[in-house]
Specification:
394 residues, alpha+beta, ATP hydrolysis activity
Length: 394
């Protein structure tokens, strides 16, 4: 019995201890929870942005540095980034040229010959052109000969202009220039809609695109617009410009300009004529036939046309009247974008009109001497017989 009582007492003590320990543990847990809650209240959320940057232009302009300061490894890395080649180059050349045109060049010779070395391809070379370290064009054909197209590199110049050349600027047209052209004057006055074609590709598109949304497209630079015609004005102009134009018509487009040149329905426009004349393998017979189909449109309400009609009625065979009629025609050719076949004749005609305006006699000896070519007597050359023999052998 005593043993049983002792065991029960021990069990009770253990239970009490367990209960006390449990209570103490709960208290400690509550304190830790309070501390955690306090810590949570004190925390602040901070937003951080991470940006992954990738350098796209890894090619540095090492050609602007001193060649003595550039290592072989830098040349190799630049060549691989420039040409996407996995192998090192065989040789490199870094040089600069000074003169009328200053430029720097960095050229590489690959270690292996390209697999398409002897193939006829559109890509003529691998030279890139830079102006003031600004990339201009890839595969510039004028920089190196075609048989050296395996050479790779860059050419940088600070003397070349970044804008369009004057020649290209004069031949190209903007929308504002076309909008103020003589072809659309009367159309704009009557409120008609005009589509401006200012891109070279438009010439090829319009040849196939005849209609749009049920409406026929008519070129204002060609004949096809029907308006009342003044037969008397046309006949007088046709008599003088008999061989220069196919026919003379009264314009339905002109308001402030005296005349303009248009092409026939199947003739070439001024832009197309320039394109065809620039072709190396052109057919001269076809070019001359199609290019000759030009029509002169006149504005009968213009003071110049009215005065020319009065002078033609007075004396049709007067030389000054013929010059006055041909000058507006040649001026219209230039303003319409065509080229003169004989610029010297046009210049002489302008000089005669200047003399007429200044009251200078046409038979002035000083002006005639200036216009005549200088012919000097050349002394006989020695050895004429030998030269003639050589010509016979040739």
């Amino acid at each position: 019995m005593k043993l049983k009582k002792r065991r029960r007492k021990r069990k009770r003590k253990k239970r009490r201890k367990l209960k006390i320990e449990d209570v103490e543990d709960v208290g400690s847990d509550e304190e830790e929870d309070d501390k955690k809650d306090g810590d949570k209240k004190k925390k602040k959320k901070i937003k951080e942005k991470y940006i992954d940057e990738e350098e796209l232009n890894k090619t540095k302009p090492i050609w602007t540095r001193n060649p003595d300061d550039i290592t072989t490894e830098e040349y190799g890395e630049f060549n691989k980034s420039l040409t996407n080649d996995w192998e090192d180059h065989l040789a490199s050349k870094n040089f600069s040229v000074e003169g009328q045109l200053e430029f720097r060049a960095l050229l590489f010779v690959p270690r292996r010959a390209p697999f398409d070395l002897f193939e006829n391809r559109k890509k003529k070379n691998n030279i890139k052109l830079y102006v003031c370290r600004v990339f201009i064009m890839d595969n510039c054909e004028e920089l190196i000969h075609e048989y050296l197209h395996f050479i790779r590199g860059v050419v940088d110049s600070e003397d070349l202009l970044l804008n369009i050349s004057r020649e290209m600027l004069q031949q190209s047209e903007t929308k504002e220039q076309v909008a103020h052209s003589a072809f659309v004057e009367r159309l704009r006055k009557h409120g008609l809609k005009v589509i401006y074609m200012i891109e070279p590709i438009d010439e090829y598109c319009v040849q196939q695109l005849k209609e749009f949304e049920g409406k026929t497209l008519v070129s204002v630079t060609k004949d096809g617009l029907e308006l009342p015609e003044d037969e008397e004005e046309k006949k007088k102009q046709e008599d003088i410009l008999e061989k220069k134009v196919e026919k003379v018509v009264v314009s339905n487009k002109l308001v402030t300009s005296p005349c303009c040149i248009v092409t026939s329905m199947y003739g070439w426009t001024a832009n197309m004529e320039r394109i065809m004349k620039a072709q190396a393998l052109r057919d001269n017979l076809t070019t001359g036939y199609v290019a000759a189909k030009k029509h002169l449109e006149i504005n009968p309400d213009h003071s110049i046309i009215e005065t020319l009609r009065q002078k033609a009625d007075a004396d049709k065979n007067d030389k000054s009247v013929k010059d006055l009629v041909i000058l507006p025609y040649e001026t219209a050719l230039l303003s319409s974008g065509f080229c003169l076949k004989d610029p010297q004749t046009h210049s002489n005609r302008i000089y005669r009109m200047i003399k007429l305006g200044l009251g200078i006699d046409e038979d002035d000896s000083t002006t005639e001497e200036l216009n005549q070519p200088v012919t000097e007597e050349m002394p006989p050359l020695e050895g004429d017989e030998d030269s003639s023999r050589i010509e016979e052998v040739d």
